[in-house]
Amino acid sequence: MKHEMMLTPRPFAMIEAGLKTIELRLNDEKRQAIKVGDWICFYCTEDHSQILQAEVLGLHYFDDFRQLYQQLPLEKCGYCQEELSQARPEDMELYYSKDRQAKYGVVGIELRLL
């Protein structure tokens, strides 16, 4: 099955360069449909003609980003080596409130660029 998602330029470029191999998302209804082996088309928010296709290799489910940040390698989640010491689960609250995390949980989507 094919899914579509939007990415801001920085994570888009990191996936394209092979630096980011785990995409962090709320495990809402849209993400609950994703299965290992599915494909995801990522569109850049600033230029929809920029498209990446990736295969889903794994799905890592957690109650919230606090748990995810404790379990997954953050350098694969979009943090540069210099940023690791300052990486905080609260960074994701810019996108997903604690209430929404409590309602849906979160997922780390492990990817392989096609």
Features:
114 residues, alpha+beta, five-stranded mixed β-sheet, 5 strands, globular, PUA-like_sf, ASCH_domain, ASCH domain-containing protein
Task: Describe the structure in your own words.
- This protein has helices spanning 9-16, 29-32, 65-71, 98-104; strands spanning 2-7, 22-26, 39-44, 47-62, 106-113.
- It is 23% helix and 36% strand.
- The longest helix is centred in the first third of the chain and has 8 residues, at 9-16.
- It is built from four helices and five strands, in the order βαβαββααβ.
- The protein has a five-stranded mixed β-sheet with strand order 1-3-4-5-2.
- By secondary structure, the protein is an alpha+beta fold.
Instruction: Give a short account of the largest sheet.
Output: 5 strands, mixed
Uncertain residue ranges: none
- Number of self-contained structural domains: 1
Radius of gyration: 13 Å
Protein name: ASCH domain-containing protein
Pfam families: ASCH (PF04266)
Question: Can you give me a brief rundown of this structure?
Answer:
This protein has 114 residues and is of the alpha+beta class. It is built from four helices and five strands.
